Structures are given as structure tokens and as C-alpha cells.
Amino acid sequence: QVQLVESGGGLVQAGGSLRLSCLASGRIYSFDNVGWYRQAPGKQRELVAAITGGGTTNYADSVKGRFIISRDNAKNTVYLQMNSLKPEDTAVYYCNVRRSWNRDYDYWGQGTQVTVSS
What we know:
Layout: E1 4-7, E2 10-13, E3 18-24, E4 33-39, E5 46-51, E6 57-59, E7 67-72, E8 77-82, E9 91-99, E10 102-108, E11 112-117
Parallel strand pairs: 2-11
Antiparallel strand pairs: 1-3, 3-8, 4-5, 4-9, 5-6, 7-8, 9-10, 9-11
């Protein structure tokens, strides 16, 4: 079992930056799919950014050009660099690690709050 712990959230003014980190208790392998999701009050959880095991990155249209997802498998850590933040980016951000061939290998962190003031 893998435990994921997010950090780096907080309160920031519009236009500012934050860097989220997700530390895994177990190994993150290069073939694991990793991603960041977010959920705003009253809304469904949505994909923000992801890296597949093959190295392909995928971003929500709303964050393209502003957010960058990266991974350091040696440190068992996934990052989300968030720039030019907007009030609509306010949400709880969750880290996810999964394997496409094993639906039981699907782990989530507890989330970290990001609040962007206007």
C-alpha cells in the first residue's frame, strides 16, 4: 500500500505562484501514472495534470501554460508548479498514483488547500 502526503498549499494572491509536493511512502516507479486533481466547493473532482508511465503529460485546458507537473522517482515525489494563479484555481488539490493494468493500485492523498485571493 502507498500513502501519499501533499504539501505546499496555502493562501496566495492572484498572479502568484505555489509549488505543491506529493511524497509517497512507497516507491514510485517510472511506469506508474501520477497526477494532480482538484475539487472546488460544490464541484466535482477534476484532473489538473498528469504524467503517464510512458512520460506523456496531460493538462486541463484551464491550466495549460501556467502549471507544470513533474516527478522525481528517486525521491518518490510528484510536484505541481503553479504560476499565474487565478481565484478560480482555488480548490483542494489531491495527488494520485495508479497503474493502468491494476485497478486496485489507485492511491490518493488527503489533499492540500489552495486559496487564491483576488
